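tool_log.txt
---
The assistant was asked to compare two proteins side by side. It first ran the structure predictor on the initial sequence, then on the second. Raw inputs and outputs are pasted verbatim so the downstream comparison step can read them without reformatting.
(1)
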Amino acid sequence: MEHHYTFLHELTKLNKKLLKMTAIVEERVRKAAKVIETKDPAVIQSIILSDYEVDDMEIEIEEDCLKILALHQPVARDLRFLISVIKINNELERIGDIAVNIAKRIDNISKFKHPAAISYDFSRMTDKVSAMLKKSIDSLVNNDTRLARSIFVDDDFVDQCRNRCYEDIKVRIKQDPEHPGYHINTYLLARHLERIADRAVNIAEEVIYSVEGTITRHN
């Protein structure tokens, strides 16, 4: 009985740590999306300098998972949950890294001496990416596989936004061949946002696996 209680207690603590990490990452992505528009140097630096928080938490959560696996040897849904936590933990850490990359990219763009440049409007793309991440986290919190599956359709919209940005940037480079770096960095923002969306999809897939035992990758 005591062994069972300890196991459930450790699973509960692990879940709380994972949810704390999701909150930190979601806030970081929200800041990164906003800084694309504002280019606020203070916010840029706050995103870059706080990267260690997510890295440290990822290591701690992974170590907890491995400890539980070694000590309790869980089976069935408990085992699926732990496997999913390890994978989701890694996805969240990568999303945090991408948010930092966005901040660094904006910092580079801000340094380009190109007063005639027209900023690219990423608002629809950032709104959709932020909504996808929120959905993936909500599906994790509520074990909601229906919500998790709805993210797959959203991903198509983000891919279309990235493709549209690519075509627009090609035109801009032709019209403004003296500043290719500015335009390429702008397109790379779209790539970063698309990668966050892809990782939100990965989280949703792990939620479905944890709850149903169904592998949806590549389907």
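(2)
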Amino acid sequence: MSMPPPPGHGYQPAGSYGTPQPRPAELFERFVARFIDGLLVGLVSAIVFSGIVAGIFINSGTSGAVEFIVRAILTVLGLAVSLAYYAYFETTTGQTLGKMVMKLKVVGPSGQKVTLDQSLRRNAFYALSLLAIVPLPGFSFLANLAVLAAWVFIAVTINNDKPLHQGWHDKFAQETYVMKLG
């Protein structure tokens, strides 16, 4: 069983008797929340961007250059949508839709709202997806491998950081914490 972080690290003082207190969220809870968020962002992106892709291909025919440009545009737009999603929810309520379902909340070092800078730092690893647009043979595979390695590294650092369950991205974001509410 995890202990809450010490005062000044996202810890909220005890409430009335019997009221569950926030505690650091564990790896599985955080994984499920990110999975839900990934499905939502991916679904919205697929719906919105499929029209763009269809329009480009219908109006221009297909060639290697067009396919590269479309892939580059979609990769950049996908990254922008992901970062905007996390930045908006983390800086306004501290909860993405996945975190709401899992009753998790991202907080700053003293329990305050996460700043835009902190949110962008927490989610900077998504920028590894940009490597997929490098037009070299096999580079897309290496980019996917880099993204997978980042996810694994984050999972390992969350799991190994006892009792606060901070990943490297939380520490990189100037000590953010993901707390389980209730």
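---
observation on (2): The chain has one domain: 24-180. Residues 24-180 form one domain.
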